[in-house]
Amino acid sequence: MDSAHVQDDLVEVLFTEKQIQDRLQEMADQIAADYEGRDLLLVGILRGAVMVMADLARALPRHCEMDWIAISSYGSGTKSSGVVRLLKDLDTDITNRHVLVVDEIIDTGLTLSWLVNSLGGRNAASVEIATLLRKPEALTMPVEPRYVGWDIPNEFVVGYGLDYRERYRNLRDIGTLAPHVYS
Ligand code: 5GP
Ligand code: MG
Ligand code: MG
Asked: Which residues belong to any copy of the Phosphoribosyltransferase domain (predicted)?
């Protein structure tokens, strides 16, 4: 059973709110330099990337647009279902646009390789990926994010948008769950 206070279920904090904000600022500065003189459309992947999108976009010292796409490759637990479904498409026509896909974590890479493939057919000027976390050992698909916050070991993490059964997204830190949560 989970505890009444969301923070109590974390067994280990991997990244604090402060560390996350600092790293996002570094990424935003790099993005601003790389995209200088070009328009920028951030595409966030619902629902996990909500926090990253909000904070990365506000760390950007320049104009950008934001749109959202909802795709699902995960079941309700800690293992990928292996099937990608488009739940909500973009509202924006990305023809000739510089698209930066914003995600919170790359695990197997299935979701993003499917998405980049799908966006690739829409005549965007460019499509790149920014992700806060990546699990290199779990990668099974060829996904090459241009911006990565941190590489992490192959374990299930929650917080800062990342859920376990739709909970823990509202944690400010990122960490691993105590075993009692799973039983
Ligand atoms: P992928 O397609 O790369 O395997 O992962 C797709 C999605 O699975 C991620 O965007 C994320 O929503 C979810 N996911 C992957 N690894 C984790 C994890 O360690 N914790 C949580 N909460 N979700 C994860
Ligand atoms: Mg996600
Ligand atoms: Mg999830």
From this structure: 18-165
